[in-house]
Design goal:
The chain is mainly alpha-helical and 175 residues long. It is 45% helix and 4% strand. The chain has a two-stranded antiparallel sheet. The model has no long low-confidence stretch (mean pLDDT 96).
């Protein structure tokens, strides 16, 4: 039996990928490999491809949808990131999350580090964006406004990533 038996999305990546993802979790104090795998599955449209592009045209690419400016801040470009193997791109996933070490206590915190770091450690009713205060950001993310009330909460943002975690734990997606 694989040491990664039952890990979300483990059937879709190599053991080397899982080893590096587990090391990232251990080094940064991320409590669940399942949570990291669910975030990468969501951000990469279930492909775990270093080349997957953001469908909205933001220029983001890869396992956690690195934005061009973010990539430069990590000492690389999105063009270089997309030429890497998924296993090698995990080094940049680790580097991206490193400043949040010790603060990523659950799936919500991990996903907020990717989507909107101000939401790390907040409650699920914390409003990230609303139509009045942040109209552009709200419009870019309006698909996350589950109850269509003009405000997007952390909890609403987690609906889809929680569903991705549940899907990743199904037998057809685990080793």
């Amino acid at each position: 039996m694989s040491r990664y038996a039952g890990v979300a999305w483990s059937r879709h990546v190599s053991n080397t990928f899982l080893d590096r993802a587990k090391w990232t979790c251990d080094d940064l104090g991320i409590p669940s490999l399942d949570d990291l795998m669910a975030c990468m599955a969501w951000e990469s449209a279930e492909t775990f491809s270093p080349r997957v592009k953001n469908g909205a045209g933001s220029g983001a690419t890869g396992l956690i949808q690195f934005m061009p400016k973010t990539a430069i801040g990590l000492g690389v470009t999105v063009e270089i990131l997309e030429r890497m193997t998924a296993e090698d791109q995990l080094n940049y996933v680790w580097k991206y999350f490193k400043p949040y070490k010790g603060r990523l206590k659950n799936l919500g915190d991990l996903y907020m580090a990717i989507l909107w770091p101000a939401g790390i450690g907040k409650s699920d009713d914390y409003v990230l964006w609303n139509k009045e205060d942040r109209p552009t950001t709200y419009i870019q993310n309006k698909g996350l406004d589950v109850n269509k009330d003009g405000a997007i909460t952390r909890g609403e943002c987690l609906v889809k990533v929680n569903a991705m975690l549940a899907k990743g734990k199904r037998p057809e997606n685990t080793l």
